[in-house]
Amino acid sequence: MRDPSQPPRSIADASAALMAGRVTSVELVERTLARINAVDDKIRSYIHVAHDRALADARQADEEMAAGASRGPLHGIPFAVKDNYDAVGMPATAGSALRLGHMPVRDADLVAKLRSAGAVLLGKLSTWEYGTGNGGEYFDLPFPPARNPWDITRFTGGSSTGAGAAVPAGTAMFAMGSDTTGSVRLPAAACGLVGIIATPGRLSLKGILPNCYSLDVPGPLTWTAEDAAIVLDATIDRPASRRREISLRRATGLPIRGLRIGVMCEPLGRFPAPDAAIATAFEAGLKVLEAAGASLHDVRLPLPVSDCFDVTRVLGPAESASIHEAELRERPQDMGFALRDKLMAGSLVRAVDYIAAQRQRLVIANAIDALIRDHDAIVTWGSLHVAPRLGVEPEMTAFTVETMLTPFNLSAHPALVQCTGFSPDGLPLNWQIVANRGDEAMVLRMAAAYERDTPWRDHRPVL
User: Which residue of the set 15, 183, 214, 383 is catalytic?
Assistant: First the structure.
């Protein structure tokens, strides 16, 4: 059901309305700011709202468009970023007491690109401390945790927590997060969104607080696959050899008839089978793809997904500890438990184990790459569970850990999570689409084709 107080959630629809003069950027921003005032005390998506700056940027966007100087489909569209992104004029706390006074002197590269495309930055979104943690939420940080708009007793997925909450609730038209072992795709799974990571290196990390140098990937969270394509078209780096490649937005309109799709459901290792509702929706989604003309072929992950997770549990904590060694040594009392727990564990990782994990990562990456090269795309699970109860640590840890997300962080393939329906309790369900390195267009093409033949983008939370 559509809440009339919310601004449009589709970037594509809002952009068309702006270009046709049916709405102004100021009106769009004012309605989004009003939405923040109306619901953010319930969902806590924001750490900082730049009210005056956003309105000033919206007025500039309107003046430019009135003069015929459109910058493209993001011109005048309000968005927000996870608070590990730098943005001039806004605090960059990363949700931590350790950084409450930090003010960046330049925009992160992605923020600069989006502003150059005319998008209007509303503010900074909630995150786990330093964009990381141990999977739990302990209510010991300077800002309250974000809550899921579909059920405010539920978790939004970490660590891009506010990004997951903001887009379905209408407090931002799109959001930028970052993903090390699922932190874009987990909020997408929990909150019924499209969350995509591109091939590492295609989106700049400059100006984003690092979590794990060898695994970090930024990415957008949007309502639709087309919207994700619009954001990536404005932010993705295209080398000279690829300047003429098809726009990602155009790719979302292409059919999938004749595509060869791998279906990957096993092996999970020590992880449990997916929740029944997720498994049922997955099977129904495969029928949608077949009806659209894709050919489906069973494939197997070359090793249990739980083994992939074990590799990330060596790499991630060790690299995070190296990044935050001084803070852990000098100000551990100012950290929340989740961050301190992870950094202490990472400090105990032996060099020989870290090197062994990097070698195993290469083995995994090569095996997955060989498997995907024989297909146009792979469809598999995303998160194995629906959004857990906020603050119930075993449920939150299971949701964060027990996923099919980590293999593709290790293998460096573009991957997308999208909504595949709703559980009997009204919580979003999900699956994941993966394609060959550099082929973000295929991931988005698959996701858009699924969206066209399913009704889930018409279902929105009501707060």
Answer: 183
Query: Is 159 a known active-site residue?
Result: yes
82 is catalytic: yes
> pLDDT at position 6, please?
55
Identify whether 178 is a catalytic site residue: no
Structure confidence at residue 173 (pLDDT)? 98
Cβ atoms of 48 and 83 within 8 Å: the answer is yes
Residues near 163 by beta carbon (within 8 Å), at least 6 away in sequence: 45, 80, 81, 82, 125, 172, 175, 176, 177, 184, 187, 221
Q: Tell which residue, 252, 134, 181, 138, has the closest CA to residue 408.
A: 181
C-alpha 47, offset from chain centre: 18
Alpha-carbon distance of 196 to 229, in angstroms, equals 9
Contact between residue 421 and residue 284 where contact means Cβ atoms under 8 Å apart: yes
CA distance 326 to 322: 9
Give me the phi and psi of 304, to 5 degrees please.
-60, 140
**Rounded CA separation 374/198 (Å):** 20
Chain CA centroid to CA 77, Å: 18
List, for residues 447-456, the tens digit of each pLDDT value: 999 999 999 9
Cα distance between residue 331 and residue 329, in whole Å: 6
Q: Which of 10, 15, 25, 82 is catalytic?
A: 82
Asked if 68 and 35 count as a contact pair (C-beta separation under 8 A), the reply is no
- Rounded Cα distance between 62 and 69, Å, is 10
The rounded distance, in Å, linking the Cα atoms of 110 and 86 is 9
pLDDT number for residue 7 = 61
Domains of the chain from N-terminus onward: 11-308+350-458 (3.90.1300.10)
pLDDT at 238: 86
**Catalytic residue chosen out of the listed positions 15, 159, 214, 411:** 159
Structure tokens that stand for 216 in this block: 């970090």
pLDDT, tens digit, 9 for 90 and up, residues 202-235: 999 999 999 999 999 999 999 999 999 999 999 9
**Reported pTM:** 0.97
